[in-house]
Hints:
The protein is an alpha+beta fold and 405 residues long. Helices cover 51% and strands 10% of the residues. It is built from 20 helices and 11 strands. The strands form 3 sheets. A 7-stranded mixed beta sheet has the order 3-4-5-2-1-8-9.
Amino acid sequence: MKIQIPEAARRIMEQLNTSGFEAYVVGGCVRDSLLGRQPEDWDITTSAKPEQVKEIFNRTVDTGIQHGTVTVLVDHEGYEVTTYRIDGEYEDGRHPKSVEFTGSLLEDLRRRDFTINAMAYSDREGLVDAFDGVQDLEGQVIRCVGNALDRFTEDALRILRAIRFSAQLGFGMEEETRAAISVIAPNMAKVSKERIQVELTKLLLSDHPGRLKDVYENGIGPFISEYFEAAGKRLFEAERIAELPLKKHMRWSGFLRLEESEDAVRILRDLKLDNETIHQTKTLVSLWKTEIPAHKPAIREVMSRLSPELFQDLLCFQKVFCQSSYKIRLKMVEQYLEEILRDGDCICLKDMAVTGRELIGAGMKPGPEMGAVLNRLFQLVLENPECNNREYLMRSAQLFLKEQG
Length: 405
């Protein structure tokens, strides 16, 4: 069983070997390679101590040296090289109180979370699989290394990681591992919201986002937040989230679609989502149940409130979750959208042929009155795109002013 290791990683391992140390690629890259997937990262584990790694290589960064990790830079790429270690006692349900370096690869693998992540490989030694990770890959099962209660007690985030891996890989959960999740669920209260959010986002962006139900069925929801737990009670047809594109805001909107937009925002802010995702999700949650008339002025009016990309996301979202009767009209809306984009209709105030600066140049005073005139001109253009020319709009502006006067 041979794994194709990238050339730079292979050179790092060979250099460590030449210096008298063991070196293996380890964890997710081994798992993904055995599954025929392209690994995102190639992590290396070694018997060399951090200071020895730094002596061997010219370009290094101390990314986590207190835990034994040094990043080695080769050809502008960084590879994490971590010393074999044994974790000390976990006092806070997340982090070991101390880390002890060891010369034993087996001891290093023993501290890892799941059997499928506890394998190592080198061209020299082949695959090291002391905990039957290959068997669990073949059986498509998520199983803790050793005692599941111990692994989850050490680090409660592993509870969410178990569910996330099952969603990403489409694997089932070994019975002891699943039972331990419910027991240790209260410890999730000790985990930072940022780390929880990362796992939930990966879960939602997986091929099986419906596994989000496992978070609730295993009693984890209340220990994330009160509002997150409440959203779970309204979560149904979760598997349909998989029909949405692999966009973070689309998948979060699919999950939170039945929430009030303010509650959706509260959940996302509590989980430390970025502002753009929060804004996009709030917009989709607010609008997706609103049927768009198959009428160009109405379509342009909705488009004027959104970016072109978010408007298309809205139509995509509605196709997945709206009633069948509306989906027939949606086809016409999509056809009109193509024509609006093709014709270059004005759907944004900044694209109007007349701006506030030109109105000021014509003698109009800045202020609420001018803002009202600009808004009326924009509504006129949304109704009749052919009106978007300077002469016509300047004449209309004068007429609107007279009406106001």
